[in-house]
Specification:
Strand order of the largest sheet: 1-38-39-40-41
Strand content: over 45%
Shape: flat
Number of strands: 41
Helix content: under 10%
Radius of gyration: 25 Å
Length: 479
């Protein structure tokens, strides 16, 4: 089962091969209206119109939901946020209510060390755990002892990867690449907010999307430039790096594919209308356009596989590609269309009985069943082949703030549901019946490696086997 943690119940969470010449713009008619308008006035009207369209597209880019890439690739786990417990290499880092962190051995709950300098464990790699501390500090602690290796100020975001480098996003838009063992600065890169993003790092190369709309590949260890490319004349947005190919999009509706090794152009697809960032799954590039259509391209050469117009109100987004089906959702969380992966033909349609503006439909699919979570706290299990209802589960504690429950699947044939009041219910996937659930007053902190971490009413920590709720060990140090 994929590891997952407690949900934050605030607000949730195109083909011309090797032809990279910018297409000619459509001619602008001289007669704006029947009245005679001086040429200089017409020019200014054109400039203001273009500027207005640019602002509108920027607004759409910011407002569209970013679907987690993991969901688009497998959809076996729902999107989650890292809260309260981080498990890595046999150690559970538990965030305590007083702002400290306990490091507990996962096999028996033995307290290895406790840190009073931090508030939340963010990530861990190469024997180092990175923790945040208010107001804007990140500490690097030795995982074995909890001793402080170094700290850095003004941190805003952090990405730690194996390979001895940690990437920090700072409040002013600067990204610092630090040597993990001592925090020394390897290189730095500045991007003005709000366009700041951490790099995509693959095979020792960091791919960066500067504010001028270009794409740069730099050596992760030194920051030295390997190559730089501009996707036509319009600003581009770095989307993914998959199987040695870099994918980018532009406001003008063009999708570009570049060779990751040298930045050379492979192909481009022109949709002539705004497109959301592409998703690459099993050698196919899926592209969603602003006019509610989806295009599937062969990833190796950009050739068109199929194109389908979705009868849903825009904007729409791709939520999952799994088990031969493509799941398309509306932004308001009310409807979902399921297409056949091979040719884009319609399989079935789903419409929620309640609006779900704060939590768009995110299907969880496994073993021929599609699970849908609703705004009222209910879970529906649908047959993945035709969308027919198999069973429905209604939470005994319906959500108060309009956030649907978190649904996760285990390889053990169980469905794990975390409700708004932070209770865990474990359901049988066969019929939706409750196998076990946490007790009143208990708070589920997270599940990792088949173990559920539960905060008890007395301030302690219990660990239970996630599948059946049997007790493993108890730690009193959680307050």
């Amino acid at each position: 089962m994929d590891d997952f943690k407690k949900k934050d119940f605030g607000n949730d969470l195109e083909v011309k091969i090797m032809d990279l010449d910018v297409p000619d713009k459509a001619p602008v008619p001289d007669n704006i209206c029947s009245l005679h308008i001086p040429r200089q006035v017409r020019i200014w009207v054109m400039i203001l119109t273009v500027a207005g369209m640019g602002c509108l597209l920027l607004l759409i880019q910011v407002s569209l939901p970013r679907v987690p890439k993991q969901a688009a690739h497998s959809a076996v786990s729902a999107p989650v946020v890292p809260l309260d417990v981080l498990v890595d290499d046999g150690v559970a880092y538990v965030d305590l209510q007083d702002g400290t962190i306990d490091a507990l051995r996962t096999r028996d709950g033995f307290l290895l060390w406790q840190s009073h300098t931090a508030e939340q464990a963010v990530c861990a790699a190469d024997g180092i755990v990175y923790v945040s501390s208010p107001p804007d500090l990140v500490y690097a602690l030795r995982a074995s002892t909890g001793s402080v290796l170094w700290h850095h100020s003004a941190f805003h975001a952090v990405k730690c990867l194996a390979g001895g480098i940690v990437y920090l996003g700072l409040q002013d838009g600067t990204m610092d690449a630090l040597r993990a063992r001592d925090g020394s600065l390897l290189w730095s890169y500045h991007m003005s907010p709000p366009f700041f993003t951490l790099p995509i790092v693959v095979d020792g190369v960091a791919y960066i999307n500067p504010e001028d709309g270009s794409i740069e590949a730099v050596r992760a260890s030194t920051g030295s430039l390997l190559w730089r490319t501009q996707a036509g004349q319009a600003p581009s947005f770095l989307a993914e790096v998959v199987d040695g190919v870099v994918y980018a999009t532009t406001f003008g509706g063009t999708v570009y594919a570049f060779q990751a090794s040298n930045g050379s152009a492979l192909w481009r697809f022109q949709a002539r209308i705004y497109v959301a960032e592409p998703r690459v799954v099993d050698g196919v590039v899926y592209i969603i356009t602003l006019n509610s259509s989806i295009v599937a391209l062969r990833a190796r050469d950009g050739s068109l596989l199929w194109h389908s117009i979705i009868p849903l109100a825009p904007p729409i987004f791709l939520s999952a590609v799994v088990d031969g089906a493509v799941y398309i959702n509306t932004h308001d969380g009310t409807t979902m269309d399921v297409l056949r992966e091979s040719d884009g033909s319609a399989l079935w349609h789903y419409r929620s009985h309640l609006p779900n503006l704060q939590s768009p439909l995110m299907p969880v699919v496994a073993d021929g069943i599609t699970y849908i979570r609703s705004l009222d706290g209910s879970i529906e299990a649908l047959r993945a082949s035709d969308g027919s209802l198999l069973w429905q589960y209604t939470s005994p504690s319906p959500p108060l703030s309009g956030i649907s429950p978190l649904v996760m699947l285990g390889s053990d044939g169980m469905v794990y549901v975390i409700t708004e009041d932070e209770a865990l219910y474990v359901l049988r996937s066969s019929d939706g019946s409750v196998f076990w659930h946490t007790k009143a007053g208990e708070i589920i902190l997270g599940i990792a490696a088949g173990v559920a971490y539960v905060s008890t009413p007395g301030g302690g920590l219990d660990t239970l086997r996630a599948r059946n709720g049997s007790w493993l060990w108890h730690s009193p140090r959680t307050q």
